[in-house]
Amino acid sequence: MIGNTRPSAESLRTASPAAVPEAPAPRRPAAAGRFLDPFKERDFTILWFSMLTGMTAMGMQMVAMGYLTYSIAGTATALGAVTVAWGVPQLLFCLVGGVVADRFPKRNLLVMSQGAMAIVALINTILVATGLIQIWHLAALGLVQGTVFAFNMPARQALVPAIVGLDRLANAVALNNAGMNLTRIVGPSLAGILIGIPAIGIAGVYMATAVLYLAGLLLLLKLPKDRGGRGQPMRGSMATQLTSGLRYIGGNPALQTLLMAAFAVVLLGMPYQSLLPLFALQVHNVGSEGLGLLSGVAGSGALAGFLVVAYVSASPRKDRILIASGAGFGLSLVLFALSPTYPLALVMMFLVGVLGNIYMALNNTLVMVNTDSSMHGRVMSVYMMTFALMPLSTLPMSMIADVIGAPYTIAGAGALAAVAVTATAMRSRRRTTLS
């Protein structure tokens, strides 16, 4: 894999002998077996478990929010609108969050943002428990949480290479993705079960998320205050530094290709997550438990995809695996959306999880490896903009789903995602000799 000292068109030539020490084929399983090495760093372990609690809380919260929104309003458009409220501030502030992550101590940013998420979850709990909750409350709190998330994720992503170094970065990213996808099993499944228990319900789910956010905060407080550096000494205003980050990406064809590929899949494919309540409550009529199972199966597939990522972390053909998994993710979405039965939909959702995780983990790794350490925060903020834009694409998809139905909407989006990944790969081969 190309290091961050040569941000050129050759950056994606993962087979370059100057970039990857050639190892005999029989040793590849041993390389895959080293994927637990980042846990030798105490601070990475703390960061990983804080992510585990926070993302479990978010997984539970997204299921609760979707179920509650659809129960109150009864339309996919309302689901999309609440999701957009969560995404707009991320789009507006994500780039600023990247500059802040490069200028100030990343650990302190994580502590403050994690605490803010706990407060938002607690407010949600009170509103639901008192029966005062309305759609506009969910949208307003989504705006707050989206703003906080815009500062949390660039700092968290940029802290990983600062802790483990570039030699263990691929495995650290794979472990992070494995943890996040484990939460996609536990969080949504647990939320679906708890919602169906009258003594707990939506209010109990939101209370659980507040407790989990608080647990993550307590873990982050164990990190040294200057972990990941006290911030880079920079000249000029934040606007100047933001512009310099964009210029850096503009001069790096490898990053441009990777970011375009990420945008294509996230914008077209990932909105399926927000529309899962329609498949559970409207298409297959399986209720909240069925919704939790759909999300949990996707997470199980993603966890299985992590094992693939661990194995191919030493592969000289990660770029080809990236393209194949991205196109396969789009096609598996088509098969899921058009599945005539719920059991078949579960099988297809597992495949969606496997291929989606392989794609995102490899893309994330290649982005960070091809970025200079002083630019990690800003580049990762652009990368995180893909997830900020996802809620914005969810709204038009939700409106289309109200007209033509969720199955045809997601099937069309999946097909477009597969085409977009393929087209990006072909363009990359012409411009950057991707191989």
Query: How many beta-strand elements?
Result: 0
What is the CATH C level class, in words? Mainly Alpha
Total separate domains:
1
> What is the gyration radius calculated from CA atoms?
21 Å
Unreliable spans are 1-33
**Approximately how much beta-strand content do the residues carry?**
under 5%
CA(first)-CA(last) distance: 12 Å
Number of helices: 15
Brief write-up:
The protein has 15 helices and no strands. With 435 residues, it is mainly alpha-helical.
Secondary structure layout plus pairing:
Layout: H1 28-33, H2 42-73, H3 76-103, H4 106-129, H5 135-164, H6 169-195, H7 201-220, H8 238-250, H9 253-268, H10 276-283, H11 287-312, H12 318-337, H13 342-369, H14 376-404, H15 406-432
Helix pairs in contact: 2-3, 2-5, 2-6, 2-7, 3-5, 3-8, 3-14, 4-5, 4-7, 5-14, 6-11, 6-13, 9-13, 9-14, 9-15, 10-11, 11-13, 12-13, 12-15, 14-15
Short descriptors:
mainly alpha, Growth Hormone, Chain: A, globular, disordered N terminus
Protein model, in words:
The relative contact order is 0.18. The protein is an all-alpha fold and 435 residues long. The protein contains 15 helices and no strands. It is globular and about 50 Å long. Helix 9 (253-268) runs parallel beside helix 14 (376-404). The chain has helices at 28-33, 42-73, 76-103, 106-129, 135-164, 169-195, 201-220, 238-250, 253-268, 276-283, 287-312, 318-337, 342-369, 376-404, 406-432. Helix content is 77%, strand content 0%. It has a single domain (32-432), classed as Growth Hormone, Chain: A (Up-down Bundle), CATH 1.20.1250.20.
